[in-house]
Write a structure and sequence with these properties.
About 35% of the residues lie in helices and about 20% in strands. By secondary structure, the protein is α/β, with parallel strands linked by helices. A seven-stranded mixed β-sheet has the order 1-7-6-5-4-3-2. It is globular, with a radius of gyration of 18 Å.
């Protein structure tokens, strides 16, 4: 298993140009949502690639293109070989997710959600269960291609690399999963670090 941390924060400025012809409002909103989804997926891959390329001697990992279902989210290159990557995001509890995604009014929490979410202070109760559910859900899909990696990015700064490493034994990997490797990007930025959760090799 691999674990690494990079101190220097590196960012890449991406320019997105989208031309949308006049269309019904519903169609336009769907296009905008898809564009945002693709930005998140590519952003996660590129943050992970900064770590992967600088810390491991396995060749250069780089983005090639977005794919549509049933295929994985991204087609990439590792060295000169095709590699397909499925991207998932985990935010913790529903309260944590709403804060990150800015749903609802800032600072307000529904009464029925307040107690069970605020008291979940430790990492296992707050995030590990969701990571396990995410891995299980993606393991059920048929992606049609290989090799394929699953990359899960944590969407907040609640915990650091060392804490995820200490709870790694609590993360459950289905026996019949479709992935050659499963990686966890431990926060929203590349300097959050990453840990390998599973490898077929």
């Amino acid at each position: 298993m691999n674990m690494f941390l990079i101190k220097k924060v590196l960012t890449s400025k991406l320019t997105w140009t989208v031309a949308i012809a006049p269309a019904p409002l519903k169609t336009t909103l769907c296009l905008l949502k898809m564009d945002e989804k693709q930005k998140l997926e590519r952003g996660a891959l590129e943050q992970f690639a900064i770590l992967f390329n600088s810390k491991l001697d396995r060749g250069e990992l780089k983005f090639v293109e977005h794919l549509d279902p049933p295929y994985p989210d991204l087609k990439c290159k590792l060295k000169n070989d095709d590699l397909f990557v499925e991207i998932a995001h985990s935010y913790g509890t529903s309260v944590d997710a709403r804060k990150v995604l800015r749903h609802g009014k800032k600072g307000q929490v529904k009464e029925e959600e307040e107690v069970p979410n605020v008291v979940a202070f430790n990492l296992e109760d707050r995030i590990v269960g969701e990571i396990n559910a995410t891995i299980y859900e993606h393991s059920l899909k048929d992606y049609k291609v290989s090799p394929i990696w699953l990359l899960i990015r944590i969407g907040n700064f609640l915990y650091d690399l060392e804490e995820f490493e200490s709870y790694k034994h609590r993360i459950l990997i289905p026996v019949n999963n479709k992935f050659n490797e499963i990686w966890l990007l431990c926060g929203p930025r590349s300097d959050s670090g990453a840990v390998q959760l599973w490898s077929q090799a």
